[in-house]
Write a structure and sequence with these properties.
- The N terminus is likely disordered.
- By secondary structure, this protein is an all-alpha fold.
- Helix content is about 70%, strand content about 0%.
- The longest helix has about 35 residues.
Length: about 130
Amino acid sequence: MSGAETSESPLRPGDLEEAAARLSEQVDRLRSQLARNEETASALRADCDLDAADTGAKAVTLRELHSRAETDAALLERTVAALDRLRGGSFGICTRCGRPQGRERALALPHAELCVVCAEERAAGPGG
């Protein structure tokens, strides 16, 4: 693959500004959600249990909060990485094969690292 193929972006400058704004908003939203989840989990852990039902309900809620927090933290990590790629000039380029992701994909899923082909190959797993 030539250097030109990996450095060209199918995106226009206005697209990059839109993606940067969306990614920044997503970072702020995810950080707020993570903070709220932690506050809720802390309050639940501090609350006294009156009976076994309270204990069970609390455990289920804490597991759900933990699961949501893991999902949000992973998305936050991918979103921050996308902002880094945007600042570095490689936004919209597949991190696996180096080909452009395509304008529609880059704008629809600005945190996506892979082009559609590489994402499908990853989802198919080994032996495809």
